[in-house]
Design brief:
There is one protein chain. By secondary structure, the chain is of the alpha/beta class. The chain has two domains: 1-51, no CATH class; 56-148, no CATH class. It has helices at residues 5-8, 20-33, 61-71, 110-117, 143-146, and strands spanning 14-16, 37-40, 48-49, 76-79, 125-128, 139-140. It has a three-stranded parallel beta sheet, with no helix packed on it. A three-stranded parallel beta sheet has the order 4-5-6, with helices on one face. The protein starts with a helix and ends with a helix.
């Protein structure tokens, strides 16, 4: 088994992934481990496909997760793990993805993509409680402060 977020948080309500290749590799395991809703703009067998909220602009999974939360009515979003850069030389907190999966090669473009989707977050308080982050468009805070 791989070290993936759905294994770290099997209690979460939603598992979202943008990349079809990621779903092709992890769908079977996700169904075994994760009881929540599977969501993607891609057609995922047995998952919910939500396409009317997807912007036409190229973006990333983290940005789209924020848009999805706003689409579903979130009024406050606390971001964790949104470093959006290669922190400590790693592409992800869990290390590199296996060959054939996207591996954060476009990280330098992500801050601009977050700026693009920020118009879809009107009326939503977004705070970035990530320890380190390349994103400067959201209020920064610690997790302790965000949860008070």
């Amino acid at each position: 088994m791989t070290n993936t977020t759905f294994r770290a948080c099997p209690w979460a309500d939603v598992l979202y992934a943008l990349d079809r290749a990621w779903w092709d590799k992890h769908l079977g395991e996700a169904r075994q481990v994760f009881a929540g809703l599977l969501v993607s703009p891609q057609k995922v067998p047995g998952g919910e496909r939500v396409v009317n909220w997807v912007p036409r602009d190229r973006t990333n999974s983290g940005a789209m997760a924020l848009v999805l939360a706003a689409y579903w009515g979130a009024r406050r979003i606390v971001m964790l793990g949104y470093d959006c850069q290669h922190t400590g030389g790693k592409t992800h907190w869990h290390g590199s993805h296996p060959r054939g999966l996207g591996d954060a090669h476009g990280a330098a473009h992500w801050p601009a993509q977050f700026r693009t989707i920020s118009v879809r977050l009107a009326g939503v308080e977004v705070v970035n409680a990530s320890r380190v982050s390349a994103l400067d468009m959201f209020k920064r805070t610690t997790l302790d402060e965000a949860l008070q």
